[in-house]
Design a protein that fits this description.
This protein is of the alpha/beta class. It has 13 helices and 9 strands. The strands form 2 sheets. A 6-stranded mixed sheet has the order 1-2-3-4-6-9, with helices on both faces. The longest helix has 20 residues. The radius of gyration is 21 Å and the shape is elongated. The termini are far apart.
Length: 322
């Protein structure tokens, strides 16, 4: 019997500022989305989440696309939120408020918007595959784990280091992808795992040598792309509904609220002030080194010292109390 062929001409591709989009030349049913800020290790800028959502919406409506492969340009998949903008800078933003006390609902609205943007990859009726090389860390791991499938280079790293201070994974995907014990291990430590470990733990579908990453990912994508779009949509909805029944949306609500608390409590404000005074690299080095993170009154005292050093009006409350 003849092999069915697509008869509808592929639609023209949209353009984005932080993403590159293209069809796989050997199989137009595979749409390639590429995080495209290689000079910043594809760190998440304020506009990137909304562009991811818009690109996924376009792919969902496109009759040619059967499967979406998401990767990153340059040396890494995604290094998380851009700390130059969101950490060491003083840009006015709901997620790094200077007012005391901070408005939790303003923070929640902004961060929940980003979470919903990433979750477009999960809700899309078409399968999504994250192809990870280098690092998929912090918010970058949120993006990767919102994809249905994860293919990693063996030497790639994934994790959420800000669980040590200044972050809670808003998509809450670690628990649903790994189970409670291993999710707690990674969230309590902020440790990274490589592709081999991710595959062994069931987090990644495949871990392959870096030189084979693209070929093996496209092999999987091509296998999926041969299935009718309606069948793929039904299978994805069945699996997603199981996670929704388990309480995924409620868990994300708590995680997103708690993420705001971690960025505005004394420990989170200390981290931001330290990054502003010493640079985000020094702040990240302290966070990831295993040194105790200043907390409570110790953090408040250090905040007061840092604000004096920075010449800031103390924003952490009366007498430095947060």
């Amino acid at each position: 019997m003849p092999v069915p062929t697509d008869t509808t001409p592929p639609a023209a591709l949209p353009a984005f500022g932080t993403l590159a989009i293209g069809r796989e030349p050997t199989n137009p049913r595979i749409l390639r989305l590429t995080l495209n800020r290689p000079e910043r290790l594809n760190a998440i800028s304020e506009g990137m989440p909304a562009e991811i959502r818009a690109a996924v919406a376009w792919a969902e409506a496109d009759e040619t696309t059967h499967v979406v492969v998401l990767d990153g340009a340059g040396r890494s998949f995604c290094a998380g939120y851009d700390l130059v903008d969101f950490g060491s800078g003083r840009t006015a933003h709901p997620c790094q408020q200077e007012a005391y006390p901070f408005d939790a609902m303003d923070d929640y609205a902004a961060m929940k918007g980003y979470t919903e943007d990433f979750m477009a990859l999960w809700r899309c009726r078409k399968p999504t595959i994250a192809m990870v090389h280098g690092h998929a860390v912090a918010g970058g791991s949120d993006i990767a784990l919102c994809c249905d499938l994860l293919v990693m280079a063996e030497d790639a790293k994934i994790g959420y280091m800000p669980t040590r201070v200044w972050g809670c994974p808003t998509t809450a995907m670690w628990t649903y992808r790994l189970g409670p014990a291993r999710a707690k291990q990674l969230m309590f430590t902020g440790d990274l795992i490589d592709g081999c470990t991710a595959a062994d733990w069931g987090l990644a579908n495949l871990a392959v040598p870096a030189a084979d990453l693209e070929a093996e990912t496209l092999k999987l994508a091509a296998r999926i792309a041969g299935v009718p779009r309606s069948h793929l949509a039904m299978h994805k909805l069945v699996v997603n509904q199981a996670l929704l029944t388990m309480g995924l949306e409620q868990t994300q609500m708590f995680a997103t609220l708690f993420d705001g608390v971690t960025r505005h409590n004394p420990e989170g404000l200390w981290f931001r002030r330290f990054a502003q005074a010493s640079g985000f690299k020094a702040a990240v080095e302290w966070r990831d080194s295993g040194r105790p993170i200043p907390e409570g009154d110790d953090a408040r005292a250090r905040i007061a010292e840092l604000e004096a050093q920075l010449g800031l009006r103390q924003a952490s409350g009366p007498a430095g109390k947060g």
